[in-house]
Amino acid sequence: MDMSANLPPLPTLRVFEAAARHLNFTRAGEELGMTQAAVSYHIKLLEERIGATLFVRHGRKIELTDTGSTLAPALSGAFRSIANAFDAAKSKTGSTLSISAVPTVSTQWLARRLGAFQVSHPELAVRLEMSTDLVDFDNDDIDVGIRVGLGEYPGLVSHFLFKAEYAPMLSPALAASIGGIETPADLLKLPFVSEGELWNAQWLELVGLPRPDVVRGLNVNFGSQYLDAAAAISGAGIAMLTPALYREELRDGRLIQPFDIVGVDPVSYWLVYPHARRTLPKIRAFRDWLLAEAQSLQNQPI
């Protein structure tokens, strides 16, 4: 049985609760953003629904009748329970920021910087999930996503982070094994990680070298930059990587980038989230912080 079918409209109950609390129709109207006449109208509707008078006037003052005195505390308690439940739900969703990001961005950029975000926002707990799958914001417990694409995501707000650039990188030991890398053609003497990777072909064509059918490969496709990078650091081969994401490995010498020539993929990295959630404080805070970090990343020299 649907018990709500017997209830008066919620706005009418809200008006009565405010009028009973203030014992003044004018102040109740001010609280609810309506006129005194509108308050009186709602009270009349409720009295007709109940079949009893709820207020009596004594000069300029009003008092609750016995029926009104019975109803008022029950409604006040009900509205407090609703407010408490809403605050609890809001607190639960507002205190945790859930991020879904592609693996390379997660490991090479975001995870290394999230500590600084949490220091600035200690009220937020951050949960980072690595995934190549597109987020279903309606069903997944995710607030924001970082994805690779063209920035066209229906129903979502998208913010450009940085371009998907690429250049060949390898371990110093592998370069030394052939006496060093002097020209792009020297790369063809070594195996490439993920030999079927499109970036290999595009970069080699960019510098005027043959198609990758003459490139020695490992006969394996890792399918992710961070795995390609791990293989390259171990000396297994040359990997096409985004230079901005491997600054630390380049600085400490685990990887070298022999040439400044970089290719630029049509896709880029984007921050995305539902349009309906764009005003949530936690999303605004993360958006502002992440866009500043992305700008800083682009301004730093390799």
TrEMBL record:
SUPFAM superfamilies in UniProt: Periplasmic binding protein-like II (SSF53850), Winged helix' DNA-binding domain (SSF46785)
Keyword DNA-binding: yes
Ranges for domain HTH lysR-type: 8-65
Keywords carried by this UniProt record: DNA-binding, Transcription, Transcription regulation
GO BP field: DNA-templated transcription
Pfam families linked to this entry: HTH_1 (PF00126), LysR_substrate (PF03466)
One GO MF term: DNA-binding transcription factor activity
Keyword Oxidoreductase carried by entry: no
Family: Belongs to the LysR transcriptional regulatory family.
Name of the protein this chain belongs to: Glycine cleavage system transcriptional activator
Record lineage: Bacteria, Pseudomonadati, Pseudomonadota, Alphaproteobacteria, Hyphomicrobiales
